[in-house]
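Now read the record:
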Amino acid sequence: MTVPVSLNTRQQNILGATVRHYIATARPVGSEALVEDLRPRVSPATIRNVMGFLEKSGLLFQPHTSAGRVPSDTGYRVYVDHLVKPSEERARQMDTMLANKLDPESYSLEAILRGATQILSTLSGYIALVTMPQTVMVSLRHLQLVSVDVGRLMMVVVLDSYATQSILVDLPTADGSDINEQLMEQELQILSNFLNHHLRGRSLIEIADLDWSELGRQFDRYADLLRNALEDLNDRTRDSLASQMFVTGVAEVLRRHPEFGEVEQVQPIVHLLEAEQEQLCALIFDGDELSRDRRITIRIGSENPLEPMKSCTLISTPYHCGEGSAGSIGMLGPTRMVYEDAIALVEATAGYLSDALS
């Protein structure tokens, strides 16, 4: 979104005061309402002139001719980019609550993610979202190879989350008639033990990228089959996790914010959260954007590509495991959002999850 003008200090102060007053009241802001908010004091006539300039510049608008002014999406953008400082107090509050309520040593990964999302939505009053860690975080707990038929075996894999996957593997047809079932069972058990010894605790991405010559010559005939099966497992798990997301705080947003008081306004958002999570998940977990250099992404109103979110702000940032991005934490609310608090809370939550996973 292009900002059409450069603002001097007075114009910035009046824009900031207008945005903060509208966020607090949800009512159009007139010049008289800002007299007490501005330091140094400015006359109502000067405030009206500046607000008129900000309206002509596209940063404010009047919903009705007799009403005061409210921020446009562009006005919010200028406010967020140039006038907002995340609240250190809210960040400390979030850090304290997460540390007191969630112990990474005692809770499962899923419980930590759910708990952090619930705390974020409770403190902020907005919808909190967190994507499950992608396959960079999914590791192998146990693997077993089982013969199910002549020339066919099944690879059963237990992941660190205790989720189980199974894949059928066809052996080369040339070997099928020569297979001794007893020897096959022994060989598969030896191979299962060997693989567990070398692969347990490794992420699926690591396993898929292994140099399979390390299996040794005695298992050469299985190497390509196992490599293909594990690569398939990696793809399937990634596709499954890509759309897994925890969402909390919907009822709280509907209760607190008048923007969502009308059924026709809120139905598309609820439908998006319930039935089209894949689209939303792809938006907050953008693999091309997730890096250590990126702190936070804020999409305001019309900047959101999904139609139901055109009246909302989406704040998101990645959480990490080591140097790699694992998933994203997000917050969805009205554009009339307390950005100082929201940004601080999202960043604090992402920092906690990164520390917990590491």
Q: What stands out?
A: Strands lie at 60-61, 70-71, 127-131, 140-149, 152-159, 164-170, 245-248, 297-300, 312-321, 324-334.
